Amino acid sequence: MLGPLIIGIKGLVLSHEDTQRLQHPLVGGVILFARNYNDVPQLRALVAEIKALRSPSLWVSVDHEGGRVQRFINGFTRLPSLGELGALYESDRQSAVLKTNEWGFCMAQELLAVGVDMSFAPVVDLNKNKLSLIGDRSFHRKSDIVAAMTKAWCDGVHRAGMKTCAKHFPGHGDVTVDSHDDLPVDVREYNTIASDDLIPFLQLIKEEALDAIMPAHIVFPKVDDKPAGFSSIWMKDILRQQCQFKGVIISDDLGMGGAEGMGTYPERLQSALNAGCDLVLLCNEYLGIEECLQTFTIDATFDRSDSITTLYGRKIG
To answer: Which of 40, 98, 260, 307 pairs as cysteine with 278 (C-beta 3.0–4.6 A)?
Structure first.
């Protein structure tokens, strides 16, 4: 059994506490950060150690988008920001698409070579220049360009043998508050969102380019009073039924400021699962992780083995 909780670990090797947590049935995987990386041999050994703990093996993920968000630097190719690639699209569409495909392939191949299953990428938000959190992490302001460039990126990632995760559904580009710090509120009507921010998601779902989607910690009060990742309206009614998404839904980090209003960490976890998230991130709050592990009575309803095994990356070497 692999559970829905994807957690962070503290250092370059597994501590006794890490090992105990990772063997808990509520846990299904690990998200790595720069604190977990020294060099390629160390990372490869760490990932192998993580995967040897359980059968089926724990799933290993990372935020490795390129530009400002790349956790592993020395020993890895320095990836351009998506914004750089999007800017090229305006002057040379064919070259931009080809280069984006190659950068997606490069990112995925290098991570797969050390055993990392998936990067939480790409960002599918629109860059409306309202929030530096997004900025050049986005391909472009125009939804059609974001859709085209994301498809090229996903094709490259798939060619390498890795699955994709688009974020942050239904769109993080129209708010001025960073959801790491506080809860943003987007007061637009649903039809306005659907005619702009949702277009790339809808197109990519139709083209079967997305294996997973990560919702935003943003409240859209004209739709629901809960943040999107805790809202069954957004997750079940809109993403699953209306958008016909059949992949894996992975929550954003429960330790972020945008999730604080949803209660204790166990309450946040339960709320995300109730809303329709398949997997749930809790990255850096070790006391919160312990609280979750000690709170829940585990039964078959927590088994996410089927979801996780669909996200394993291709083994290289």
So the answer is: 307
Write the DSSP assignment of 24-38 as a string of letters: STTEEEEEE-GGG-S
The per-residue pLDDT of the chain, averaged, comes to 96
The Cα 224–Cα 63 span in angstroms is: 28
Contacts of 199 (CB under 8 A, 6+ apart): 143, 144, 147
Residue 206 lies in a domain: yes
Tokens of 31: 């998200």
Contact assessment for residue 34 and residue 283, using Cβ atoms and an 8 Å cutoff: no
Tell me the CATH number at 243: 3.20.20.300
Instruction: Tell me the H-state helices in 125-219.
Output: 143-160, 190-194, 198-206
Decide if 116 is inside a domain.
yes
The token duo for 105 is: 């392939």
Quick check: bond before 122 cis, omega within 30?
yes
- By the 10 Å C-beta count (0-12 exposed, 13-18 middle, 19+ buried), 117 is classed as buried
Count of domains in the chain?
A: 1
Mind telling me the catalytic residues?
180, 252
pLDDT of residue 317: 64
Domain limits for position 116? 5-309
Single-letter amino acid, residue 227: P
pLDDT tens digits for 112-132? 999 999 999 999 999 987 767
- Structure token digits, residue 115: 């055993």
- The C-alpha atoms of residue 268 and residue 287 are separated, in whole angstroms, by 14
pLDDT digits (tens, 9 = 90+) for 276-307: 999 999 999 999 999 999 999 999 999 999 99
